[in-house]
Amino acid sequence: MCHLIKRRAALAKTLLTLTGALCLAAGLSACGGAEGDELRNPILLTENQALRERADASVAEGLVGAVYASQQASTEKLYLGAAGKSAVAGPALQGSEMFQLASLSKSMTAALLAHWVEQGRLRWDSRPAELLPELAALQQGAYAHVTLAQLLDHRSGLPALNEPADLEKLADYLQTRAEPPPATESGRRRWLAQWAMSLAPAAKPGQDFVYSNAGYIVAGAMLEAATGQDFASLLRQWAEARGLRPTWLKPAQAATGYEGASAAQLQPVSEYPPELQPWVDAIKPAGDVWMSPADYARWLAEHQRALQGRAHQLPPAYGQRLRELKTGDYALGWEGSQINGRKALIHSGADKGFMGLVVLEQDGRSAYFALSNTLGVRADGSSWVLDSLNRGLLQLLSR
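The structure assignment produced for this chain is given below.
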């Protein structure tokens, strides 16, 4: 979930202004055709060093820890540089720790839904009330014709649901329900969908773009209704069949997240109040996955192979949509952009003391990403941490 971040449009603008350019690298030798990448592009011979220098620079700018990583055309070798600490008073960050991906995992939700569309369980033009019939009487009339595709492309008109005040509104809503809350996460997600669809539109449904966690929550509830299975089990089964290991409970090997309006104000992340935590857990489809950098790189490698026209394990409709995505448009967990004259797919994520940013060339030639166990938001809503990660990736991509 993208938490307290209002920088998405500014990030895209920054990237658009530049019109000029799986193995863990530490301890493992290059696999397969990775040497060919280095022959074609000799700069890759020092890629690990360049990534480490960027991680060092971000830590010097106040981040607790930072990992920069890249994957080239062969997708068979992950270059990686880590710096800083896994916790302020803890050991050095190695780059093998688990990170909270937040909204970087929206693409996983979208791909999972694309899979079940292909299985015929729901359609791109399925409307929420078709699968969640109680919405017919509860939703705002303006949402009556919103489709699954529009939910995943942030064109549903639903509010963003990424501010602390939204949790207060949710608490107020829960008090209006006469019946006891659902005992299952799927049931709570369905209540969240009802609440979201009862809110006034933030933009014209079906047309205007408004980044919305609510849209992905509703899509997740639709998927559960269509399959009769809970979202976490569906994603885990689908991902594990592709060699991925997503988890939602904070693992023991996770880095510790920190938040602060500046580097001098960083504090360990505070947990949600116990009474709200079960509802926060129900937001999973909007982004709540923990992964290591190597595991996230495997996810990106599937995209690279799909974009290159090679064999891959992504739903064909999902891959085709990303190949066709235009600069400035958004679809299925990705925003179209352009860097140094080359088309790219980008996204950012932030929550629970973690931030991340990814740039995937639209032809699949390379993927770059940066992860940090630091979340930093200024009083104006902009992020000094995202600024640092953005600068680092742009410098790497401009070589």
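Interim note for the steering committee: The chain is about 40% helix and 15% strand. The domain at 108-230 is CATH 3.40.710.10 (Beta-lactamase).
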